[in-house]
Specification:
Length: 115
């Protein structure tokens, strides 16, 4: 086969089963996340770019971090590329979630104001 055709052969060889096998290496949460990501689209092929992006972003990360990010995305019921990247970034930087208490500020009225 001519070298210029090898790239397309390689790209087209990656189907849903390929991405599911790849995700199973990381663990059950990542496997379920990729499965949901692939099933979320009308046609499975539409999710392949998201899978490739995730594959490249987690290539050199510890499996535990990737599993935790996938678990949080599944828990939020948001299996999208952007959500995964945000959760992964938050885990890596150690940023706390927005669910924590509001900071102390003079302009914020507490429950005592409404008595």
């Amino acid at each position: 086969m001519r070298p210029e055709h090898l790239y397309y052969k390689e790209v087209n060889a990656k189907d849903g089963a390929y991405y599911r096998r790849w995700a199973s290496v990381f663990g059950p949460n990542m496997s379920e996340y990729i499965d949901r990501l692939l099933k979320a689209q009308k046609h499975e092929e539409q999710a392949y770019n998201s899978c490739v992006g995730i594959l490249h972003s987690v290539k050199e990360l510890p499996h535990g971090i990737v599993e935790e990010a996938a678990r949080q995305c599944i828990q939020m019921n948001s299996c999208k590329y952007k959500t995964f990247k945000q959760v992964l970034s938050r885990i890596q930087t150690g940023t706390v979630s927005r669910d924590d208490n509001l900071p102390e500020h003079d302009n914020i009225r507490g429950k005592g104001f409404y008595k």
